[in-house]
Inverse folding.
């Protein structure tokens, strides 16, 4: 299906916020599709993410020495640091017209906090299977709910997150079972010949502050921004029932601008599996 963009899409800038272990690069194919639909976009690298991020010292060495125990160099990264990176981008693009802030997964926390602090910079906020702090303040509050019990991926976490200061995974693991669990959790509908390229680009550490720091939203600020939730119906990392719980609790807590909800027939990573469909959903 070919989607006709909104009449104001040529005056719209999409600010794209990545999820855990990813970076601005995750949006490249979606950005190409958005450009083809006449929409400008800018992707954010939050602190502790992207190709400049420091890695555990043994991560790229044979045997990956110390991977289970070495404290993350990202342990001091805070939620405020990440929200500031989003705010900096919002301020830079505001002069170009309408701004739509899009976040994926764990990126929902920093994006929400940025929108709360400067709602005048955002015309619409979109959550792509992303954390919405309106009902419960921490992403971990939703990850541990009964609604998320079917989610996969818990076995991917390495070591003690409190000691490491990060949720650590091993995208370069030599264990085929571990690699398959990573694929099934995040990329089960991504073509197999592209999955290895995707996983090789992932960073091993997610600063622990991102899923555990409380984010407080208010009706007067975040709540005045029109909001959309893009559900991922085949999501195995954040169960659809948990996505629905966040939507329902946010609408109860902040009812003035209830969510507009659309569903994609996708895994947790539609930017990898179906970027064209994702771009069309964003411009609708």
């Amino acid at each position: 299906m070919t989607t006709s963009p909104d009449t104001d899409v040529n005056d719209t800038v999409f600010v794209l916020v990545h999820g855990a272990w990813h970076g601005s690069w995750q949006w490249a194919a979606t950005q190409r599709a958005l450009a083809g639909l006449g929409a400008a976009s800018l992707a954010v690298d939050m602190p502790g993410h992207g190709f400049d991020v420091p890695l555990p010292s043994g991560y790229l060495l044979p045997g990956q020495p110390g991977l289970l125990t070495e404290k993350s160099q990202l342990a001091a990264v805070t939620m405020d640091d990440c929200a500031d990176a989003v705010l900096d981008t919002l301020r830079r693009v505001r002069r170009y017209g309408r701004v739509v802030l899009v976040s994926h997964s764990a990126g929902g926390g920093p994006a929400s906090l940025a929108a709360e602090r400067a709602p005048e910079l955002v015309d619409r906020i979109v959550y792509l299977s992303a954390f919405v702090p309106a009902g419960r303040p921490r992403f971990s509050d939703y990850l541990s709910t009964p609604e998320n019990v079917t989610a996969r991926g818990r076995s991917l976490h390495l070591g003690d997150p409190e000691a490491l200061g990060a949720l650590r995974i091993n995208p370069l693991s030599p264990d085929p079972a571990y690699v398959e669990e990573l694929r099934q959790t995040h990329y089960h509908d991504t073509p197999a010949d592209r999955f290895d390229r995707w996983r090789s680009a992932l960073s091993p550490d997610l600063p622990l502050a991102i899923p555990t720091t409380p984010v407080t939203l208010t009706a007067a600020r975040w709540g005045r921004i029109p909001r959309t939730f893009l559900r991922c119906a085949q999501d195995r990392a954040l169960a659809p029932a948990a996505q629905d719980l966040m939507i329902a609790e946010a609408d109860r807590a902040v009812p003035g601008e209830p969510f507009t909800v659309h569903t994609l027939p996708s895994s947790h990573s539609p930017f990898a599996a179906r970027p064209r469909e994702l771009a069309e959903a964003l411009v609708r």
